[in-house]
Amino acid sequence: LLCLRKSKGKLLNARIPEENTQCRQGLYFQDGERRVDYILTYQIKKPGSSRRHSSRLTDNALTRSLRRSRGPPPQQDPEGATQEHNLQYHEDDKRVCREEFEGNLMEMGLDLEKDENSKTPGMGFVKIHAPWHVLCREAEFMKLKMPTKKVNHGSSLVEKMNTFISKVTEPLHPKVEENRIHNVKHLSYPFSREKQHLFDLSDRDSFFDSKTRSSIVIFLKCLKILIPLQLLYEEWASYSVFYKYQPISLVRKYFGEKIGLYFAWLGVYTQMLIPASLVGVIVFLYGCVTVNDDIPSMEICDKRNNVTMCPLCDRACSYWNLVMACGTARASHLFDNPATVFFSVFMALWAAMFMEHWKRRQMRLNYIWDLTGFEDEEDHPRAEYEFRVMQKSLKKDQNAQKVWGIQGRMFLFLLFIYFIGVTFAIVFGVIVYRISTTSALHMSSDPTTRSNVRVTVKTTAAIINLVVIIILDEVYGAVARWLTILEVPKTDKSFEERLIFKTFILKFVNAFTPIIYIAFLRGRLVGRPGSYLYVFQSYRMEECAPGGCLMELCIQLSITMLGKQLIQNNLFEIGIPKLKKLIRYIKMKKGAFQEEEQREKKLQRYETDHFLEPYAGLTPEYMEMIIQFGFVTLFVASFPLAPLFALLNNIIEIRLDAKKFVAELRRPIAARAKDIGIWYNILRGIGKVAVIVNAFVISFTSDFIPRLVYQYMYSPDGSMHGFVNHTLSYFNVSDFEEGKDPLEPMHLGYRVEICRYKDYREPPWSQTPYEISKEFWAVLAARLAFVIVFQNVVMLMSDVVDWLIPDIPKDISVQIHKEKILMVELFMKEEEVKMQNSDSMAMRADKDNCNNHSSVHRSESTPNSHGSVF
To answer: What protein family does this chain belong to (predicted)?
Structure first.
C-alpha cells in the first residue's frame, strides 16, 4: 500500500530520498523495473533449522521429487525424542508445499522474488510480477473487454445539459480525473492476441490497470496486492470532503467492480434519502404546528372534563385522572396526524423510485465499465463439497446416506427455528420486565417516581432491547455462518447466498421483533377491568396510553435505530479493527530481535500492511444498510424522522467505510460483478412488505381510522369534539375481582364508583354489560377496508412508477446501439484490409512466378558464353 502510516493519518507531499527508495523497493522488484502485482505472505516458525531455507525458487519437478523422496515423520522415541522433531518435520513439509506452489506459478509464466531481508519476525514474503505475455494470455482467456478506439458521444441537447450541470456542480466533484465527465469513450472489445492491432497499445504499462492486473494474478491463484491509494485517501476517505460526490470510477479502478458497485449503491441510497428527509421533517413540523389545534389532545388536557380512569395495575395502582396523560397525548400528535398517511404513501413510492433509480445508475455504470455483455464466470465446486462427495462415494450404504441427508436438513432447519425462538423468548423476557417494573414503581412512596412510571419503563425497556439486539447480532452472524458450513453448499455463490439469507432472517427478526410486538400486540391482549389477562397468573398484560401505542413505538424505533447506527455501525467499525491491528502488532513485536525504532525505519510497506485487518467481504456492510432501509420504510408511519437520521448516519458511513477500505483493511481481491446480487431482491421484498406493514400501522396502531369513523358516523356536528369520550368505556368498580381492587381507593380525594378504560364495550347498565359494542365492529371493518385499499392502491402506484421509468437510460441505449454499429464497421474495415493485403500478396506472388519462369526460359535459350572444353 501507499506510504501513509508514518505520517500518522496525514499525507506528506514530500519525502526524503531514503523514504522514496523504500517505497519504490516495496512496489517494485530489486531491479526497480518490474512492478509488484501481488505479494504472498506466510508464517515461519523457527525451531532449529527450519529458518534455513533457500532463497532460490526451486524447480517444480525438483520439489515434487523431494516430496516423494521424503520418508514418514520420525516416530517419537519413548526414551528421549522431543516434540521439536515433529514440529521440524511439519515446517519442512510446509516449506516443500510452498516451493511446489511457487514452482507452479513460475510454470504459468509469473516472475517471483523472495524477500530474504524481512524485518517482520515470523513472516515471509514472495513478490509476484505478471509479465506482458501472461497478461495478454489471461486477458484473452478471461474475455476481458479492453479499449480499442474512441467513440464520440456527440453534442446533443442532453449532453450539453450534462456538461452545463457538471460545470455548475464542479465544487461537489472530487479532484479525480477518472470522475470527470468526458464526451469521448473508448470502444471496448474482448482482448485477443491475434487482434492486438485493434487495441490502444500506445502505453503498455497503463493498458492493463492495477485492478485488471490483480484480477489476472488472482485468477492464477495468488493472494495479495500492493497499490497506491493516496488519491483515494485525499478525495474519498477524508471526512473533510463529505459534501463531495464519490470518485466511483477510481474506486472501481483500484478495488474492482464489486466494491465499486457497493459504494455506488450506497451513494444512490444516501442521495435518495435527501428528499425523503425533507418530507419527513415537514411532516414532523406539521405535527408541531397543529398540536395546539388537535381536539382530542385538547380534550385530554382539559382539567374540566375530570375523567377518572381505572387503575393501571392491581392493588398497588389507584385511580387516576385522564389529564395526567396530557403530555403523552400531545407528543403522540407529533407522529400521529393526518400527514403521516400522506408520508406513508410517499415513502412507498420513494422506495419504488429508489429501486428504479438504482437500476438506471447500475446500467450506466455497466456501460461505462464495459460490463454490458459480462456474464458471471462458471462457479466451481467448493473444496469442502468435493471432500464431502468423496466421503460419500467411499461409503457403501447409499440409502443410509440419503436418510442422513434428510435428517441433516431437518436438524439444520430446527436449529434455525430454535435461534428465532431465542429472540422471541428474549422479547417475552423484556415484556415480563416491563410488567414487573411497572408494578414495582407504582408501589413507590415517591410521587415523582409514580408519575413517571410510563416514561421510565418505556426508556429502560428500549435500552435493554437495544443491548440485546447488538449482542445477538454478533452471535447470529456466527450462527448463520456455522449453519451454512454444516449445509456444505456446492459452489461459492450458493454458499454466499445461503449465508446472506440466513444472516438477514436472523438479524431482521432480532431487530424488528420488539417493534412488531409494540406495534401490533401490545395493548390488544389485555382484557378489561374485572377480567384481565395475566402472565404467570400474577402479572397483568400491558396497556396502551390513552393516546395510543404509537408514541411508545416511536421511542423504541428511535432508540434502536440511533443506537445501532452509533454503537454497532460506527464505534464498532472504528474501534474493533484498530484493536485487532494493535493486538497483531503486539504479538509480532514479542518476537522481534531489534529495537522498535530501527525495525520501523527498515520495514517495507507490505510488511507494515501485514498488521492490517483482513478483508471479510461486503456482507456486513450491505447488511447494516439493509436493516437501516427496513427502519426507514417499514414503520415510517410512526417515525417520520427516520430518513433524516439515516441520511446523517450515511454521510458519515460513506467516509468511514472509505477510510476503512483505504487505511484499515488489507487490499481486497478485485472481483467483477454487474449488479449487487441477492441484495436487490431483498430490497424489493422489504419495499413490498413495507406497504403492508405501514397499512396495518396506520389502521391498527394509530387513531387515524377511529377518528375518521367517529367524525363521519357518530359525531353530531361532523367534528372531533367528543372523540375521547367515545373511545372510553365505563366500568363499575364494584365488579372488580376479589383482591384486585386498589389499596387506596380514596387516592383522588373522593369515592370512585365508575371508572373509564379505553375500549369499545357496552356500559355496565346495559343488557349485555362489558360485551363488545357495535362501534368496535364498525371500526374494525373500516380498518380492514383501509388496509386492503391502501395496499392495492399504493402497490399499483409503485408498479406504475416501475413501468413509466425505463430500466436503461435513453442515452445509454443509443450509445450501446452505436457501439455495435461501429464495431461492425471496424471489423468490416479490418476484413477489407486483409483482403487487399491478400490480393496484393497473390498478385506479387504471381508476378514473381512469371518473372522466375521468364528468367528460366531465357537461360535455357541463351548459349553459354564461356564455352566448354568438351
So the answer is: Belongs to the anoctamin family.
In this structure, what C-alpha cell is assigned to residue 648? 446523517
Strand partners, 618: none
Determine if the pTM surpasses 0.70: yes
Sequence-distant (6+) residues with CB within 8 A of 444 are: 450
Instruction: Please enumerate in sequence order all residues whose Cβ is within 8 A of that of 735, keeping only pairs 6 or more positions apart, or say none.
Output: 529, 530, 764
Q: Quick one: which of 327, 341, 324 has its CA closest to 707?
A: 341
Based on C-alpha coordinates, what's the Rg of the chain? 37
Longest distance between any two alpha carbons in the chain, whole Å: 161
Backbone φ and ψ for 808, nearest 5 degrees, come out as -110, 125
Backbone angles phi, psi at 531, to 5 degrees: -150, 60
Q: How far apart are CA 142 and CA 215, in angstroms?
A: 10
Terminal C-alpha separation, the chain: 87
SS3 701: helix
Beta bridge partners of 114: 126
Report whether 695 contacts 772 (CB < 8 A). Answer: no
CA dihedral defined by 6, 10, 13, 19, rounded to 10 degrees? 0
**Residue (of 765, 775, 706) closest to 734 by Cα position:** 765
**Tens digit of pLDDT for each residue in 687-726?**
999 999 999 989 988 888 999 999 999 988 888 898 999 9
Determine phi and psi for 125, rounding to 5 degrees.
-135, 140
User: Mean pLDDT of all residues in the chain?
Assistant: 76
Closest CA to 507 of 442, 408, 443, 422: 422
Q: Would you kindly state where each structural domain of the chain is located, as residue ranges?
A: 38-127, 265-590+618-710+782-804
Q: Which residues, in sequence order, are CB contacts of 43 under 8 Å at separation 6+?
A: 122, 123, 124
DSSP 8-state symbol, 868: -
Residue closest to 19 by CA, chosen among 608, 864, 807, 430? 608
> Can you tell me the distance from the alpha carbon of 200 to that of 439, in angstroms, rounded to the nearest whole number?
79
Distance from C-alpha of 314 to C-alpha of 753, rounded to nearest angstrom: 17
Bridge partners of residue 851, in order along the sequence: none
Alpha helices in 229-382 (DSSP H): 230-235, 248-255, 257-289, 295-301, 326-333, 338-368
Beta bridge partners of 539: 535
Residue 818 CA to residue 813 CA, distance in Å, equals 9
What region, left, alpha or beta, does residue 36 occupy, with left being phi > 0 and alpha being psi -120 to 50 degrees?
A: beta
- Residue 853 backbone phi and psi in degrees, to 5: -65, -45
pLDDT tens string 144-195: 767 675 555 555 566 667 676 767 777 776 766 655 544 455 666 666 666 6
From residue 229, alpha-carbon distances to 233, 254, 282, 740 in Å are 6, 8, 42, 71
